[in-house]
């Protein structure tokens, strides 16, 4: 008989397999049990965490209405009423408030501000780390009303010292956005200016730090589009005027027709920096179709360097340059007061008369040529047409001017030609030489013009306007109406020859016996009273024997 140990190992293999299987099952059971225990521990920890988070948020949750409402009162410095309030937990903590009304305690029945929607978004990490920080504050449909300066309402709603304690929000705001909002500034009991704010972004809004801003808005008067970027602050609550501000801007599509009798569309760009009460600013502008009243559209470019008081709107004009064609007008002055009054000193050297007059004239300008001007101008507050608000006192000098109207040029040419022919005859010059003394072009006819001028209510007036034509000197006083372009000047024409040579035909026969009445002392020539009158298309120069000497 053979032994099992020698002939076959089967019984031992079964034992080994059986033992191994038992161990695997045991290990698997242990693993499952461990996973269940770990899972239970994780669930327990998560539950404890959620419980702790719930307790934490229950204690420290900053977006409760009872926490937010006092904060809104602090931010607006006013009474605040909220129609609807809704908390947000995921994905970011925050809230949405709608139907917000802002009133002053002194006038609760008269809201000075409303907000359609206020959305605030925070971050969980800031919340868990107890950091006073908000990621986003977004307002839509904000409408603030600022009462007129000096009114009872402004003193009630913004009493003296009401902003002295405001240093900025105690909670840092990474980004604040305003959309479709209106800032309404009243300037009397019935009228106001509404600044439509398309969007305003304020970044890093935090107490004691400067704020970066991006602004896109519509200006009400004159109508135009403003874009600006820069920084503001940190706010100096004790002295707001000392708060620094800087940035750059564009002011385009400006409708000059909204202010007085000006016309044209202006576009400008500029930069500014400095404390709020004394902002140093510079800008350049271009108006391709500038005109006053019904004057001719003219391309005008400008540049300005000024100081702006951001607390009251006063402007000190350090230097202004306005260019029309090749002519440059320079100015200095100020725009101050409430309402605003402009006082400006203007100078023009080596300019052109026609380039300056063209924006004021409906038809051709009366004179052309080189010109220099020194004037003091005063422009009153808005409410009346521009020419009624404009007052000018100055002196003009046109050393080589000429008349642009053919009829007035013809009249001056006739006077000048007869006078020069008389001088030629008295000197016994040959005919060819006599002809050479006659004016060969219009510039020789009207060779100079100078004297003091004033402008009141759209009328240019002078008491001693002097101009020369070849062989004669003219002194005039009178007016030129910028509205109707009518002229009425009277004065004297001092000629080098006798009065009988100032006209021809039967008039010379009549006037000649009276020539002694017009003869100047110690001079061989004559002094003739003349008048320059007419309206566009019929200007004329005539003898005015009825004119008092």
Summarize this structure as a short list of keywords or feature phrases.
549 residues, alpha+beta, 25-stranded mixed beta sheet, 46% strand, elongated
Short description:
This protein is of the alpha+beta class.
Please state the average pLDDT score: 76
Number of helices: 12
Strand portion: over 45%
CA-CA gap between termini: 174 Å
Let me know the largest β-sheet.
25 strands, mixed
Q: Structural class, judged by helices and strands?
A: alpha+beta
> How many DSSP-defined strands?
25
SSE blueprint:
Layout: H1 4-7, H2 10-60, H3 65-76, E1 79-88, E2 94-103, E3 113-121, H4 124-128, E4 133-140, E5 143-146, H5 152-157, E6 172-186, E7 192-205, E8 211-220, E9 223-232, E10 244-255, E11 262-263, E12 265-275, E13 279-292, E14 298-308, E15 315-324, E16 327-336, E17 341-352, H6 353-357, E18 367-379, H7 386-389, E19 390-403, H8 406-426, H9 431-436, H10 442-445, E20 448-456, E21 459-469, E22 472-481, E23 487-495, H11 506-511, H12 515-518, E24 526-534, E25 540-543
Parallel strand pairs: 4-6, 5-6
Antiparallel strand pairs: 1-2, 2-3, 3-4, 3-5, 6-7, 7-8, 8-9, 9-10, 10-12, 11-13, 12-13, 13-14, 14-15, 15-16, 16-17, 17-18, 18-19, 19-20, 20-21, 21-22, 22-23, 23-24, 24-25
Give a description of the structure.
Strand 6 (172-186) and strand 7 (192-205) form a beta hairpin. The protein has 549 residues and is of the alpha+beta class. Among the domains are: 49-220, no CATH class; 405-543, no CATH class. It has a 25-stranded mixed beta sheet that branches. Mean pLDDT is 76; it is low at 1-6 and 428-445. It contains 12 helices and 25 strands.
């Amino acid at each position: 008989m053979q032994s099992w140990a020698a002939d076959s190992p089967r019984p031992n293999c079964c034992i080994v397999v059986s033992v191994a299987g038992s161990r695997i099952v045991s290990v698997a059971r242990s693993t499952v049990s461990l996973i269940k225990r770990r899972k239970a521990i994780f669930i327990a920890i998560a539950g404890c965490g959620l419980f702790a988070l719930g307790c934490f948020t229950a204690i420290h949750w900053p977006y409760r209405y009872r926490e937010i409402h006092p904060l809104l009162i602090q931010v607006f410095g006013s009474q605040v009423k909220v129609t609807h309030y809704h908390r947000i937990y995921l994905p970011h903590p925050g809230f949405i408030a709608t139907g917000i009304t802002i009133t002053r305690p002194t006038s609760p029945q008269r809201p000075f501000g409303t907000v359609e929607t206020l959305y605030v978004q925070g971050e969980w990490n800031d919340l868990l780390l107890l950091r006073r920080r908000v990621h986003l504050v977004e307002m839509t449909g904000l409408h603030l009303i600022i009462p007129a300066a000096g009114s009872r309402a402004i003193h009630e709603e913004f009493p003296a010292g009401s902003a002295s304690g405001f240093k900025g929000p105690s909670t840092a705001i990474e980004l604040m956005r305003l959309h479709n909002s209106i800032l309404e500034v009243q300037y009397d009991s019935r009228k106001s200016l509404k600044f439509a704010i398309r969007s305003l972004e304020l970044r890093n809004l935090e107490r004691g730090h400067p704020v970066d801003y991006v602004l896109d808005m519509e200006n009400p008067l004159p109508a135009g589009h403003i874009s600006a970027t820069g920084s503001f602050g940190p706010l100096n609550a004790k002295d707001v005027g000392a708060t620094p501000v800087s940035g750059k801007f564009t002011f385009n599509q400006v409708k000059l027709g909204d202010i007085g009798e000006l016309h044209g569309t202006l576009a400008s760009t500029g930069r500014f920096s400095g404390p709020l009460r004394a902002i140093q600013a510079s800008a350049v502008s271009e108006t391709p179709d500038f005109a006053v009243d019904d004057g001719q559209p003219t391309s005008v470019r400008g540049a300005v360097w000024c100081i702006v008081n951001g607390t009251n709107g006063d402007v000190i004009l350090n230097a202004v340059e306005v260019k029309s064609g090749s002519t440059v007008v320079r100015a200095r002055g100020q725009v101050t007061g409430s309402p605003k009054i402009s006082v400006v000193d203007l100078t023009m050297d080596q300019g052109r008369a026609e380039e300056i007059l063209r924006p004021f004239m409906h038809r051709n300008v009366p004179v052309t040529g080189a010109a220099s001007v020194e004037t003091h101008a005063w422009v009153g507050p808005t409410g009346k047409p521009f020419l009624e608000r404009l007052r000018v006192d100055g002196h003009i000098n046109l050393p080589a001017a000429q008349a642009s109207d053919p009829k007035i040029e013809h009249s001056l040419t006739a006077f000048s030609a007869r006078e020069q022919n008389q001088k030629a005859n008295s000197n016994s010059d040959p005919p060819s030489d006599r002809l050479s003394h006659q004016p060969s072009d219009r510039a020789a006819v009207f060779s100079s013009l100078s004297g003091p001028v004033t402008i009141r209510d759209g009328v240019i007036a002078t008491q001693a306007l002097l101009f020369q034509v070849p062989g004669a000197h003219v002194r005039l006083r009178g007016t030129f109406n910028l509205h109707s372009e009518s002229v009425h000047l009277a004065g004297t024409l001092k000629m080098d020859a006798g009065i009988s040579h100032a006209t021809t035909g039967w008039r010379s026969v009549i006037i000649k016996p009276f020539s002694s009445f017009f003869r100047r002392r110690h001079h061989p020539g004559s002094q003739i009273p003349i008048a320059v009158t007419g309206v566009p298309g019929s200007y004329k120069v005539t003898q005015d024997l009825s004119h008092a000497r």
